[in-house]
Structures are given as C-alpha cells and as structure tokens.
TrEMBL record, chain A:
Gene encoding the protein: drrA11
Keyword Cell wall biogenesis/degradation among record annotations: no
Topology class, membrane: Peripheral membrane protein
Taxonomic lineage of the native organism: Bacteria, Bacillati, Actinomycetota, Actinomycetes, Kitasatosporales
Keyword entries, A-Z: Antibiotic resistance, ATP-binding, Hydrolase, Nucleotide-binding, Transport
Gene Ontology terms describing biological process: response to antibiotic
Descriptive protein name: Daunorubicin/doxorubicin resistance ATP-binding protein DrrA
Organism of this sequence: Streptomyces lavendulae subsp. lavendulae
Automatic annotation (TrEMBL), chain B:
Name the UniProt record assigns to this protein: Uncharacterized protein
Length: 300, 524
C-alpha cells in the first residue's frame, strides 16, 4: 500500500507553546482518513505543516512522495484544500474564485463544476462579501471537488452547511474516493466521520493517541449490554472486564470490555437469556473516553 | 430617541478601550507638532526683524503660499498658525476618519456589529459612539494646542485650537457619511481621503495665485476656512461658524442616511459578478485586487498635476528675491528660477505622497495574509515569491505610473515641454521605491510589525514638510531618502549617482524581504 501522507515525529512550537509534540500520521492512498481531536489539539497546525505554510521544527513530513516544505508548489498541483473558515475577496464573484483555484491546481473539470454548482445550489455570480458562511464554504468545496487532484485536505469543511448540503458533501466525498482520490477529513461531526472514513486518527495535545479502522478502535472499548434473564444472574459482577453492573430482579445492564464479551455472554446464558440488546460503542463514547482518560492521566 | 441611543455609553467605552494606544499617539503627535512650533521657530528666527522678513518673503512667493498658506502676521503665534495650522488640521482629519470608520463601517463589514446590535444597542448608537470617540480625540488635540500656545496669546491659541479640532470633527462627519454610502471600510476611507485631498488642492490652488487667502477656491475648501480664521492676527471668529455649520450638516446627513439603510448594507448596491472567471495566476489576482485603487491614485495625481502646473507661472510672478527665501526654496527643491523652484517643490510633494501609495500597496500582502486569504491561495500551486511578486510589481510599477501621470499633469497644466516635468516627477521614484522596499522587508522579516512601514514613510514625510523651514541640521535631513534626490527641474547636469544608489538599495531590501518571506511561517 502506498502512503499518500506520512508524518513521523512532527514537532512544531510557537514561542513557548508546543502545538505539535511528536505527532505521527499515516494516510494510505485511496482511503478516506478521519482526523479527530478536541479544539486546540493541533489538527489545523498539522494541516498547515502538510501544506507547507508552516515549517516543521523536527520530524519528517512527506506527501504524495514529496517533501511538504521543499516541494510545496509542485505538490500543490496535486492537492486541493478546503479551510474551515473560508474568506473570499469581497469584489470577486464565487465563480471567479472557483476558476482561479482550479487554474492554480491541476485544472478544473468544467462538466463537474457545472454539476457541483447545481448540487450545492450555489449561485456563482454573487460577490464574495454577499455570501453567507455556508455559501463561502460551498465555493471552496466546489473548487476542491471539481479540481483534478490526487489528495483532498478538508479542515472541518461542513461546519456551516445545512443537513441537505451535508448529504451532498458526503456523496461527493464517496465519489472522490471511488475515483481513486485520497481524502484527509478533519471534522467534529462524528456521524460524518463514522459514515465516510475508512480509518481514523485521534490526536490530543499535539500527539497521536489512537489510529486504526473504526472496528479496531471499537475493539479497545466497552460494549453496553442489557439482558432479561430466566433466572437470577450468577456472579457476573465479579468477572474481569465488567463494569457498572446494575441488577434489578431479572433485568441486568452492564458495560463490558469488548475483548471480554465471550466470558460475559457465557455467564449470562448460564442463567438463561430471554432478551438481549448489545450496543457497540458510538464514536462519541470512544472519543469522550480518550479525552477523559487523557485528562485523568494529565491530572495524575 | 432614548431607545435609538441605548448602549451608546458602553459602545463609546469599547471604542476608547480599543483605541487606547492609537488615539493617544495621534492626539499627542498632532497636538505637540503644533504646540512645539513657536519654540522651533524662535531658534531659527530669533529676532522680530528676521521674522518680519520671513513673513514678507513667504507671502511674496506663490509656491510657498500653495504649500502652507498666506502669512497673516509676524508674531511667533501667527507664524505657527501659518506653518502648522493646515497640517495640524490634515492630521486631525486623518485621525478622525480612521476613528469613525473603524467603529462604524469596519464593524459592520467584519460582522462584529451584528453581535453588538443583537444586544441592548439602539439603531443610532454605533454612529453616535464613533462620533463621540472622534469628539474626545479632537477635544484632546484642542486642549494641547490651546494649552501649549496660550503663552503666545490666549485668543489666538483658542482660535487655532478650535479651528484644528473643528476641521477634524468636520472630517469625522464626512467619514460618517462615507461609511453609510459604501459597503467596505477601505472604500469609505478612500472616499473621505479623496475629499481631504480635494480640499487641500483647492486651498493650494487658491493661495498660489492670490495673497491673503481671498480666492474663491480657498473659500470652498474647509482647510481654507482654517487659514482664514487668522489665528494670532486679528481672529475672525465668524469663520469658525462655517466649521460648526459644516459639522452639523455632515453629521445630520450621516444620521439621515443611517436611518434609511439596513445593517451591513450601503447605498451603492452590490452588482452580480461573472459566473466564470478569467483569472488564472496569482499576478493577475494581485492586479485585479489593486487596480481600482491605482486608478483612483492615478486620476488624483493627474488632476492635481494639472492644477499645480496651471498655477506655476502665477506663483512665480511675485518676486521673492531675498537670501533667506532663496535658501529655503533651494532646500525645498528648486535651484534657480522661481518657476523651476515651484515645479521642483511640487514634484517633491508628489514624490512624498506617492510614498503613501507604495506603502499601502506593499502592505496589501500583510492584509491578505492576516485576513487568511493568503493561506488557501498558497495551498495551490503558487509559490510565495510569485504571489508576493505580483503585489510588489503592482506597488512599484504603480508608483511609477502615478508619478508619470503627475509629471504629465504638471507639464500639460504649465504648457511646457513634458520631458522636463515628467523627468522631475520620475526622479522621485528611487526614494519612493526605497520606502516601499523598507515596507516589503518589514513584511517579509517581521510580519507582526509590518505596519511600521507607515511610520518609516511618516518620518520621511515629516522631514520633507517641516524640515526646510526649520533649518534642521543636514545630518537629520539625510535620514529621508528624498533629501538625496537631485533637484529637478534645475540648471545643473543630472546626477545619476544617488538615483542609482537608491534604486539598487531598494532592490536589495526587496530581495532580503522576499528571502525572509520564503523561509518563515505564515501568520495564522
């Protein structure tokens, strides 16, 4: 598998604040990679280093086989970037900006441009100052998705879009992946990440704390189980990897480490199971667990 | 009325808090420049006889009257009013327009006003708070001027102080009107500056041909009212009433207009643009972003050149044959022949004002970067040098174009061979470029302090305007690149050495600035 993005041991300090503290990031060519982390974790700083706008203090940063800083201009021909906060020139129309960005990249697919304008319901004749936040983002999104590039770097690209447009965005990302493009998606909308992303990296305080497919990440967390039993539960609270046990008569609810599920289910079926619901952890829970444990770790 | 003004006090405190550095600096610089003038004049013209000679020779000379206005008396106070009255008023006007537009149109443009207006803030409160902030600043200038000059005579000090503060407030009102008309702060500042520039040109044109400020052109200009108030020389208090009426008229118009428009909108509606664009390079984008302002500057320079060129002969009619005047005129730019001296002084004036253009154009780079428009642009296949090069080409090429237009205007207006005046005007270019190059170096190496480019240009301008009449030592005058330029038109053979040295120095500074830009982080 070729790497579209390969970052190892990336450090970046602004004065005395260490924004990035040994960050690693690997994005395989052709995948949609979710890039998650709380505010101030260093997501945007990482992206700006990837784009050659900031210079890394230490570590290696390679994109599409080139060096992010030294080969920036040549690489940018093959990259499209959408910032979270799009600012436009007040006296240029949206269409002019889309065409400018297309020409400054590898070129623009005219048919695709027309189609995207229609799907995003964007009027390209309006001037930069008259667009709302969501519409400014659409200008950048149309320019990115209509560009003939290999890698899309999207930094919270949907923070101003309405749910209908969010759906259009998701189908555009899926189409880009089907066309063989690589996408790095930084987002706080976890349902979006869950739907779109093949793999996810979670960063915190300038470091990567977790990376893998969603299934792999889930494996490290707890599944919640509710069961109605035929007889009283027997010693289930003492099993390893079981937490928050609540027994009310024949009804049991508990949390179990996902890799200990087998033992938990054996113990439950021993009492006879009438009904069972098992909920895998949502990305939210996964996310929150990472942040809270890191907080506790910091507190210690 | 009460509901309309709700929250004015809170907004005023916010404005004063935000301007806590800028406003005192403007107030002190403006006030002290005026208030310190008697002391400076006394050092050079110690005796009454010397001052009388200065007054009569300055009055006899059209180019001096155009620049500073007529002298109405030979006391230290009257000379201060002559020397610094109009410039003090220009400084107060620029300060006022910055304050008013910063707290009205700029707040709306950035969207901050929306959040404020959603709170308990009346519809008229933002405009009122901005005008009150300008009133506070101008009142402080008046206090410093009146206090500082009281020793020269109470009534004169009061008249000069009130005239300067009144002119400042008038331009606060004009800025308030401009802020209602346009949708961008940049356009509002440009519109108000254009009115200020027109006021100066009218006053200068009127004074060049007529002594004692009696010309109708002078009376049209608010800056002409200031000199006609005749501080320290039999004050005409009623002229100040013109300023009062002007302030009332302008602020009234601003309130009327503000009541008839929606938040964030102007009276000049936004037209739709093309659905498809032709822009394809960073250079083309730089030209597109800057061409409007270049056209405005070019038109202003051409018109001003025509006006000044037309009055060159009239200015030279009156003979100012004494030694002191000749020395001052020589320092201003001319070497022989009063017409040549006048044209040379005007070319120098255009050069200094072109320095403002080049700095503002170079600092567009800084504006694009801090507004986060550079970041997405540079994430395309655009090198930083190419991007910055586009803006710098407009800045340095544009300053050549506007000086060329000024030279053409001077030549056509004067009805003389264009080569002489165009040459005199373009000879300013190396000094203009050097100041632009310093701004480019500051931007490349110390992006946070890029605005210091304005301060550098300001020092050069202050030396050029105030230095000659004050007999400042040559070592101080040498700080300004304009001092080193040959005086054109003149009888001597053109000395290319300083022009080439300044140009090479400017190129080296630009190269250093670009080198620093390529190595540094972009500012988030």
């Amino acid at each position: 598998m070729t790497k579209a993005i390969s970052v190892a041991g990336l450090h970046k300090a602004f004065g005395r604040t260490h924004a990035l503290d040994g960050l690693d990031l690997d994005v395989t060519a052709g995948e949609v990679h979710g890039f998650l982390g709380p505010n101030g974790a260093g997501k945007s700083t990482t992206i700006r280093v990837l784009l050659g706008l900031l210079r890394a203090d230490a570590g290696t940063v390679s994109l599409l086989g080139g060096d992010a800083w030294a080969d920036a201009v040549a690489l940018h021909r093959r990259i499209a970037y959408v910032p979270g906060d799009v600012t436009l020139w007040r006296n240029l129309s949206g269409g002019e900006v889309i065409d400018l960005y297309g020409r400054l990249r590898g070129g623009l697919d005219r048919a695709r441009r027309t189609e995207l304008l229609e799907r995003f319901e964007l009027d390209p004749t309006k001037k930069g100052r008259t667009y709302s936040k969501g519409n400014r983002q659409k200008v950048a999104l149309v320019a990115a998705f209509a560009s003939d590039v290999e890698l899309l770097i999207l930094d919270e690209p949907t923070s101003g879009l309405d749910p209908l447009m969010e759906e259009v965005f998701q189908s555009c990302v899926a189409e880009a992946r089907d066309a063989g493009r690589t996408i790095l998606l930084s987002s706080h909308i976890l349902s979006e990440v869950e739907t779109l992303c093949d793999r996810v990296s979670i960063i915190r305080a300038g470091r990567t704390v977790e990376t893998g497919t969603l299934a792999e990440l889930r494996h490290l967390t707890r599944t919640s189980i509710r069961a109605e039993l035929a007889g009283p539960p027997n010693g289930i609270a003492h099993l390893p990897g079981v937490y928050d046990v609540d027994v009310r008569g024949l009804k049991v609810s508990l949390q179990a480490d996902t890799d200990k599920l087998d033992a938990v289910l054996r113990s439950l079926t021993a009492s006879g199971v009438r009904s069972l619901t098992s909920t895998p952890p949502t990305l939210e829970e996964l996310f929150l667990r990472h942040y809270t444990t890191a907080d506790e770790a910091n507190a210690r | 009325m009460n509901r309309q003004l709700a929250g004015t006090g809170a907004l005023l405190r916010l404005a004063l808090r935000r301007d806590r550095v800028m406003m005192p600096v403007w107030v002190l610089v403006t006030g002290l420049l005026v208030a310190s003038m008697p002391g400076s004049l006394e050092k050079v013209y110690g005796t009454a006889a010397e001052r009388a000679e200065l007054a009569s020779s300055m009055n006899a000379n059209g180019s001096m009257r155009a620049l500073y206005g007529p002298v109405f008396g030979d006391s230290l106070g009257a000379l201060t009013s002559w020397r610094m009255g109009v410039y003090g008023a220009v400084l107060a006007a620029v300060m006022s327009l910055i304050i008013v537009i910063r707290h009205t149109r700029e707040e709306e443009e950035t969207g901050r006003q929306e959040m404020l207006s959603a709170a308990m803030v009346g519809r008229r409160a933002p405009l009122t708070a901005a005008l009150l902030a300008a009133l506070v600043a101008n009142a402080c200038v008046v206090l410093i001027v009146v206090g500082g000059l009281a020793g020269q005579g109470g009534p004169g000090a009061l008249a000069l102080g009130l005239a300067i503060g009144g002119a400042g407030l008038l331009f606060a009102g004009i800025a308030a009107v401009a802020a209602q008309l346009t949708e961008s702060a940049r356009a509002a500042k440009g519109l108000t500056s254009a009115v200020l520039g027109a006021a100066f040109v009218l006053k200068a044109a009127g004074d060049a041909g007529t002594p004692a400020g009696a010309c109708a052109l002078t009376w049209i200009s608010p800056l002409g009212w200031l000199e006609n108030a005749r501080a320290f020389a039999g004050e005409r208090w009623w002229v100040l009433l013109l300023l009062v009426a002007g302030v009332a008229l302008a602020t009234g118009a601003a309130y009327l207009l503000s009541g008839r428009r929606d938040l964030g909108m102007g009276f000049l509606p936004a037209r739709p643009g093309p659905a498809e664009g032709r822009l394809g390079t960073a250079g083309a984008l730089a030209w597109r972003l800057q061409r409007g302002s270049l056209v405005g500057w070019g038109a202003a320079f051409l018109v001003a050149g025509l006006v000044f060129g037309g009055m060159a002969d009239g200015a030279a009619d009156v003979v100012g044959g004494n030694e002191k005047t000749r020395r001052i005129i020589e320092r201003m730019g001319g070497q022989s022949g009063l017409t040549d001296a006048f044209l040379a002084a005007m070319a120098g004036l255009f050069g200094m004002i072109a320095a403002l253009y080049v700095v503002s154009s170079v600092l567009r780079l800084s504006g694009e970067e801090s507004a986060q428009r550079a970041e997405p642009l540079l994430s395309n296949a655009v090198g930083r040098l190419r991007w910055a090069g586009g803006h710098l080409a407009v800045a340095f090429g544009g300053s050549a174009v506007i000086l060329l237009l000024a030279g053409l205007g001077l030549g056509i207006g004067h009805g003389r061979d264009l080569g002489t005046t165009v040459g005199a005007s373009l000879a300013q270019l190396p000094a203009v470029w050097l100041l632009g190059a310093l701004a480019a170096l500051l931007y490349g190496a110390l992006p946070k302090y890029a605005v210091a480019g304005w301060a550098v240009a300001g020092v050069a301008l202050a030396l050029g305007w105030i230095g000659p009449a004050l007999d400042l030592p040559q070592s101080v005058m040498n700080v300004s690149p304009f001092t080193h330029l040959p005086k054109l038109p003149g009888p001597e053979a053109l000395d290319w050495a300083p022009l080439l040295t300044l140009t090479v120095l400017a190129a080296a500074l630009v190269a250093a600035g670009l080198g620093a830009l390529r190595r540094r982080d972009l500012v988030a």
